[in-house]
């Protein structure tokens, strides 16, 4: 039987509450958009498989709640992420300023090899824009990150953003993937199962797959 995937990566969505993390994830995995905001509770994930350079890359994308009270839960997940989306809302200067705080948390808690990408969401809301595109690209450049403006509403740059981060993660783990492909063993699971460390003890099995948007 054909293998379902060659490599499994864990990606994490970070950013203030309300910037559109849950909507970005629902748009990417299910091509859906929900106009009302229902706060994400704690941490939740969705999966999708991409084919990059002939390699089946299964990505596990973790959605987080930006609220302060969930910070301790979230930080446990930084450690095992291979890629991180730092998301702000182009109609919220405040959410953009907070990117620095999110980035410094990532520096502190995530592995050194972690790949990051800056995302300015709600690009469809041009008339409410508070953060210029140049401000986003300048910040991304300062941090050495790629940058995309997206819209979960119109589907602008959604596939591009998720694919780019997966490509970056694949590139830094290329040596491991090459080794794996020259062997006959199964898939490479870089995102070790969270149950091993009991991180999902607070969630029930059906909660882990549900869409909270
Ligand atoms: N116009 C517009 N609204 C969006 C977009 N993405 C999310 N929203 C809205 O912003 C609100 C918060 O989105 P949500 O995904 O729950 O944010 P989260 O707290 O970061 O997960 C919801 O009312 C969404 O409908 C977008 O790209 N464009
Ligand atoms: Mg959410």
TrEMBL record:
Topological relation to the membrane, as annotated: Lipid-anchor
E.C. code: 3.6.5.2
Keyword Lipid metabolism belongs to the record: no
Subcellular location: Cell membrane
Transmembrane domains' residue ranges: none
Top-level division of the source organism's lineage: Eukaryota
InterPro entries recorded: P-loop_NTPase (IPR027417), Rab15 (IPR041826), Small_GTP-bd (IPR005225), Small_GTPase (IPR001806), Small_GTPase_Rab (IPR050305)
GO molecular function, one term: G protein activity
Reactions that this protein is recorded to catalyse: GTP + H2O = GDP + phosphate + H(+)
Signal peptide boundaries: none
GO cellular component: plasma membrane
Keyword GTP-binding: yes
Gene Ontology terms describing biological process: protein transport; Rab protein signal transduction
Quaternary data: The GTP bound form of RAB15 interacts with REP15. Interacts (GTP-bound form) with MICAL1, MICAL3, MICALCL, EHBP1 and EHBP1L1.
Chain's role: The small GTPases Rab are key regulators of intracellular membrane trafficking, from the formation of transport vesicles to their fusion with membranes. Rabs cycle between an inactive GDP-bound form and an active GTP-bound form that is able to recruit to membranes different sets of downstream effectors directly responsible for vesicle formation, movement, tethering and fusion. RAB15 may act in concert with RAB3A in regulating aspects of synaptic vesicle membrane flow within the nerve terminal.
Name used for this protein in its record: Ras-related protein Rab-15
């Amino acid at each position: 039987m054909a293998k379902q995937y060659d490599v499994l990566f864990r990606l994490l969505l970070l950013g203030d509450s309300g910037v559109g993390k849950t909507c970005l994830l629902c748009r990417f995995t299910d091509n859906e958009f929900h106009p009302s905001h229902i706060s994400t509770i704690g941490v939740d994930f969705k999966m999708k498989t991409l084919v990059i350079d002939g390699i089946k890359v299964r990505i596990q994308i973790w959605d987080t709640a930006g609220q302060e009270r969930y910070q301790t839960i979230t930080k446990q997940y930084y450690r095992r992420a291979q890629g991180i989306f730092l998301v702000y809302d182009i109609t919220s200067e405040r959410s953009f300023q907070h990117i620095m705080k999110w980035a410094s948390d990532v520096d502190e808690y995530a592995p050194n090899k972690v790949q990051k990408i800056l995302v300015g969401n709600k690009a469809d809301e041009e008339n409410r824009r508070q953060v210029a595109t140049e401000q986003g690209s300048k910040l991304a450049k300062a941090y050495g990150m790629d940058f995309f403006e997206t819209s979960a509403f119109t589907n602008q740059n959604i596939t591009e953003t998720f694919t780019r981060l997966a490509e970056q993660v694949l590139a830094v783990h290329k040596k491991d993937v090459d080794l794996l492909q020259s062997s006959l063993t199964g898939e490479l699971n870089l995102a070790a199962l969270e149950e091993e460390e009991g991180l999902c003890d607070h969630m029930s099995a059906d909660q882990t797959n549900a869409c909270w948007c």
